[in-house]
Design brief:
Distance between the termini: 36 Å
Helix content: 10-25%
Number of domains: 1
Strand order of the largest sheet: 4-3-5
Shape: globular
Number of strands: 5
Structural class: alpha+beta
Radius of gyration: 12 Å
Bound molecules: zinc ion
Strand content: 25-35%
């Protein structure tokens, strides 16, 4: 049995397999998309859809919590 790593989208709260989500890491005072999902540091996950992406960049107060700033 394959264990699927589930992550939660910080915009809509939906749980999905890690591979289906976009990963972001904190770099230079901004969230940076980690396309390879291999950057070090705390990652935040978000669905690939436009809506979740926009919500992610709009909700700046969430960044503090998800990136442990
Ligand atoms: Zn989402």
């Amino acid at each position: 049995m394959v264990v699927v790593m589930q992550r939660t989208c910080i915009s809509c709260g939906m749980k999905r397999p890690k591979q289906e989500l976009c990963r972001f890491v904190w770099r230079d005072e901004m969230p940076m998309q980690d396309f390879q999902q291999s950057e070090s540091g705390r990652g935040a996950y978000c669905c690939e859809g436009e809506r979740c992406h926009q919500a992610f960049f709009k909700e700046r107060k969430k960044w503090k919590r998800v990136f442990r700033l």
